[in-house]
Amino acid sequence: MSVNEQMVQNIVKEVIARMNLSITPQQNSLGIFEDMNEAIEAAKKAQSILKKMSMDQKEQIISNIRKKTIEHAEIMARMGVEETGMGNVGHKILKHQLLAEKTPGTEDIKTEAWSGDRGLTLIEMGPFGVIGAITPCTNPSETVLCNSIGMIGAGNTVVFNPHPAAIKVSNYAVNLVNEASIEAGGPANVACSVVKPTLATSNIMMKHKDIPLIAATGGPGVVTAVLSSGKRGIGAGAGNPPALVDETADIRKAAEDIINGCTFDNNLPCIAEKEVVAVSSIMDELMHYMVTEQGCYLASKEEQDKLVSTVLTDKGLNRKCVGRDAKTLLGMIGVHVSDNIRCIIFEGEKEHPLISEELMMPILGIVRATDFEDALEKAVWLEHGCRHSAHIHSKNIDNITAYAKEIDTAILVKNAPSYAAIGFGGEGFCTFTIASRTGEGLTSAKSFTKSRRCVMADSLCIR
Questions:
Q1: What is the pTM assigned to this prediction?
Q2: Segment 269-287 mean pLDDT
């Protein structure tokens, strides 16, 4: 029997309807608890089993997580969009497939060794134990699954405090991780969560004696809270990634790459192009290709003003606008466009509120610069010192080098869409926790380990 669109929608609606009921462990929702303390205790017991398992056994669990992620990618993508109202189903499916295929597992855990006249010394990467993880609503199930693969690969278990706007899909992913573990011969509760995550449950997790490490993926507020907890913290915070285009770039390709990156999952990824700085000599050409070939709508001054009052509030971003597509955003200000419009562009000064603010929606302001040096200065200012991500389109190696040194971000993408940074159309592994603020950069299994030195003096060197 073939599966059509309507059948998939019916399956998703049934899943969501079931999850709208009170979710408890007794209702076959593995790893989901009413109380955060109970979740941590369960994860601690599971870790006592996991740490005794061989690397091969852990890898079997991870392989099964990968398999289940691909099998359930479409359901989780649809659940995520329906629950949060943000993003693009097709792009979220691609993100789940990417993390399943390219998130490092046990192969990331390696031992260093020194041997010589005075014996043998090993540096081994050991687990922390139970990790506390705070996850966002922008990449909810993706972050849960990506973190689980890395943390379990390192020998840890994990307790999640998901974003309240993405509880159902986040906990669906937690359940999936535990199903994968049990089927592969591992324990239940390798990943745990709570029915109703709140600030209170987050505080319990951050202060609990059995949580030595906290990984937070979210905005600056949650990262600051984690870094103030007194625990070891991995903080993946906000960014405002600029894309610089100089006169040596392939302008047509730059237009395509920038719009593809900016519109991926409706600009929800923190690595996505949030604004462009272009040298004046090629700026008009760049915008021409964006409008004529890349589905961009050029907003007038009046429309820009309407967008400012619509997408920004006194308290920050209008959450009803975050992760919406360009057609929907334009409809909110009374502008009706065809379905092929995927990004809103305009020229503005770097201080323009739709340029200086990280929007997480496909609105792309373009700043004119007199030359490369001016563009570099403006791009660095726009990145706001987050040290997260930046992009450049140039064939001038000296310009690329100068930009990389000056902007000093965890990620720098050259002549490609932003998503090449996480292995989609580019080399390297995938992650959804990019810890620029605390220095780990693109996290992987080894990020969730502690270094342990084992020394045997005067023996075991057999050269």
A1: 0.90
A2: 97
